[in-house]
Design brief:
Penicillin-binding protein 2a (Domain 2), Beta-lactamase, 5-stranded antiparallel beta sheet, 19 helices, 24 strands
């Protein structure tokens, strides 16, 4: 028995003896990433080399959002102390290069911290001098734990850039990551591909200077090319910010679409988010909201133009079609319909042209009831109200339209005839009105023009979405004549949109705002959404412009689209004509990517 037990003990001892090298080898393998360097333990790691984020450019290749290279000079005082570096000498050398007080530099280097920043944004000379001294045998040990770190920072062209559309970025482990807008939805294209480097990273997680070797170079992200025009964007921003402040409106938007296409040239909003300082706007819900593309409102009398155009296109109306219009109010299904202000001195027959020029709600109700529900729904579909523009923005709301399965009542038909009872966003409105500036052809919106490869520089253009005929060319031509008279006729509601030297066409809108109490705000509460949608020059349209102001204050002075939004349209269109003149004269270099 003793021999058996002794043999068992001996066997276990031998097994343990034989197994021990395996255990030690395993533990050695586990810690093989750690090596001894200057008596300090560091970990051998593969570290990313951050790729440069692509830029966001306008249609002429001008930066809307750029990516600037930034540098910082840092040191590891804890390791310098362990290596018994002459701190005073190092501080004097660094202070001389960086133009700083040597006492302040020495104070930073004598801390027990593992990472201190000695200089933010050093210039090229400073970086070159420090890099040269680190390679000089006489100074390499002295500056061994001083390094130059490169990183990227997002820059934006100007405060007028469409922050709510472009979006913004945040820094995630040094990497710029899209958070909102196009920066988020196109992040996979913009962010590029990080490179790799191998070297030593201290147990504190910070790099050991001069230890890394590049394994793989980073690949720059693609540049995103938008249809926007930076100069037109600034024109619109200056105009809408001025008129929002002048009228006391809650907010406003100005949108420009290139006639004959669906290209957005400008989407300006005020107030809006400055993408370079978006954190300052977190408490400003008005600025944070994307009023131009992700808010719905009832467009008011601008809607009259769409229904009139559809009626003419269907062959059921002409500018001379006559309707009996009361001069006060009418009652329909227990509801009262009236005019925004007194239009007719007495009841009588009036033509469609007069109804459009003077913007008669009662007259347009008669038009809508004569055309019926099918024409109204056809209007919504043909002018793109049932579509969401594919412009790479998340959470774009669908238009608020009556469900197709529900039959409309007479009061609903009448209400929708003059632009109430349904809601769309300003961007959708601009595309719909652009059809009237494009020979009756509806062009779906386009914001993304293409991509420029971050490595090869090759440009890949995106094809515009296929459009469709909204109304006939004849209907469009006749509507053009009526809409031009809106801005020139003595009784026209859009006289304030008229531009000296140019013919323009357009329609005013003064939409009632739904009240939380039910129904709409009362007239004496002065809560209106005021709009002017137009285009020009009338004979050969180049631009479609939509201006919307949210509840301007100031009483009767600014309480309609003709008084508040039309002057803003005029300011923008006049500036666009001047811009075209300067570009035609060769002032500046303008070669569109598309």
């Amino acid at each position: 028995m003793f021999l058996q037990r002794g043999g068992l003990v001996l066997l276990l001892f031998v097994a343990l003896f034989l197994f021990m090298p395996v255990v030690l080898a395993a533990r050695q393998s586990q810690y093989s990433g750690y090596i001894d360097k200057d008596k300090n333990v560091g970990k051998k790691v593969i570290d990313p080399i951050l790729a440069q984020r692509g830029c966001i450019l306008d249609r002429y290749g001008k930066e809307l959002a750029g990516c600037a290279v930034r540098y910082e000079i840092f040191a590891n005082p804890a390791r310098m102390a362990k290596q018994e570096v002459n701190i005073g000498k190092a501080a004097g050398l660094l202070a001389d290069i960086l133009g700083r007080n040597p006492v302040a530099i020495e104070g930073l280097l004598r801390t027990d911290q593992t990472h201190v920043v000695l200089c933010n944004s050093p210039n090229g000379r400073q970086r070159e001098e420090i890099a040269g001294l680190k390679e000089n045998p006489d100074y390499s040990e002295l500056l061994k734990e001083v390094g130059i770190e490169r990183f990227y920072e997002r820059t934006y062209a100007a405060p007028g850039m469409p922050g709510n559309i472009l979006g913004w970025v945040r820094r995630d482990e040094g990497r710029l990551v899209g958070v909102e807008g196009l920066e988020l939805t196109l992040d996979v294209n913009l962010r590029g591909h990080d490179g790799k480097r191998i070297g030593l990273r201290g147990v504190n997680g910070l790099p050991i200077v001069s230890s890394f070797q590049v394994l793989e170079q980073p690949l720059k992200g693609d540049d995103v090319i938008l249809t926007l025009d930076r100069e037109i964007q600034l024109i619109c921003y200056e105009a809408i910010s001025h008129w929002v402040q002048k009228t006391g409106a809650k907010c406003g938007a100005a949108i420009v679409v290139k006639a004959g296409t669906g290209d957005f040239l400008a989407i300006a909003q005020y107030p809006g988010v400055d993408p370079g300082r978006y954190a300052d706007c977190v408490d400003n819900r008005i600025a944070w909201a994307d009023f131009a593309c992700r808010s719905l409102y009832e467009i008011g009398s601008v809607g009259k133009a769409f229904l009139a155009a559809m009626g003419i296109s269907e062959g059921r109306l002409s500018p001379q079609s006559s309707f009996f219009v009361e001069n006060s109010t009418i009652s329909l299904s227990g509801y009262t319909i009236g005019e925004y202000h007194t239009i007719w001195p007495s009841s009588g027959n009036h033509s469609l042209e007069e109804i459009i020029i003077r913007s008669s709600n009662i007259g347009m109700s008669k038009v809508g009831l004569a055309l019926g529900e099918e024409t109204i729904r056809n209007t919504f579909e043909k002018f793109g109200f049932t579509n969401r523009p594919e412009i790479f923005l998340l959470q774009m709301p669908a238009s608020k339209l009556p469900p197709p399965e529900r039959k409309l009542s007479k009061i609903e038909i009448a209400n929708m005839s003059f632009g109430q009872g349904y809601a769309i966003c300003p961007a959708v409105l601009s595309l719909g009105f652009n059809a009237l500036a494009s020979n009756g052809w509806f062009h779906p919106g386009r914001l993304l023009c293409g991509m420029r490869d971050g490595v090869t520089g090759r440009i890949r253009l995106t094809d515009p979405a296929e459009g469709w005929p909204a109304v006939s060319e004849t209907a469009c031509s006749q509507m053009n004549g009526m809409l031009h008279k809106v801005t020139t006729d003595p009784m026209g509601t859009g006289k304030n949109a008229a531009c000296e030297g140019f013919n323009v066409s357009g329609k005013t809108g003064t939409g009632q705002v739904p009240s939380p109490r039910g129904g709409y705000y009362k007239e004496n509460e002065h809560c209106y959404m005021v709009t002017f949608a137009g285009y020009g020059p009338s004979e050969n349209p180049r631009y479609t412009i939509v201006v919307v102001l949210d509840k301007p204050r100031g009483g009767i002075k600014y309480n309609s689209g003709g008084k508040a939004a039309a002057p803003c349209f005029r300011q923008i269109f006049t500036a666009l004509m001047d811009l075209d003149r300067r570009r035609s004269a060769g002032e500046g270099s303008f070669q569109a990517v598309d």
